[in-house]
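Good morning C.,

I know you're traveling, so I'll keep this short. The sequence:
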Amino acid sequence: YTSGSTGRPKGVLIQHSNLITLLLGFQEVAVPEIKGSGLAVCPYVFDVSVWELFINLCFGNTLHLLQNDDVFNPTVLTKYFIKHQISTAYIPPTVLSNVADTLEFSEAKVNLKRLLVGVMSIKQATLQRLVDIVPELSIINGYGPSETTICATFYPFWKVLSPDDNTPIGKPVANTSIYILDRGQ
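The tokens, ready to paste straight into the viewer:
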């Protein structure tokens, strides 16, 4: 379903091939992973949940499902990452900074290798904090409406370019194109 920015979420039909393109595109820009553990935190009616489920199941990861209430508790979320050695995840932007705070003061090693972020603008400084805490972390900022199969663009974040600026939205997902139009088109 769409995020409901118009006030009412709407169902979106996509083809299986579009999802495969998205998953392979993510695999191309993120650090490759073999047999890790992935986490699903989004409700199944939210488009990002499709990425969470299939990026893990299609590439051999063990999939963990987290209860919705725990997603917005950074302490619970961080402890889950550590206890279950989660390596692939999506973290909602509203809790990114709080998760970074919790990870910063954690004594335990975090196994997080691949992180999808997006849905709304995220300051580069927030993502840099996560990379500073988990240096081997590959963060991908995804952007796009549900109708484009979750993300239309990916931006691999490696280091901050301008801390106070929003993270760029990146380039089209592999094997796709984007068109930036003005009001006349």
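Safe travels,
E.
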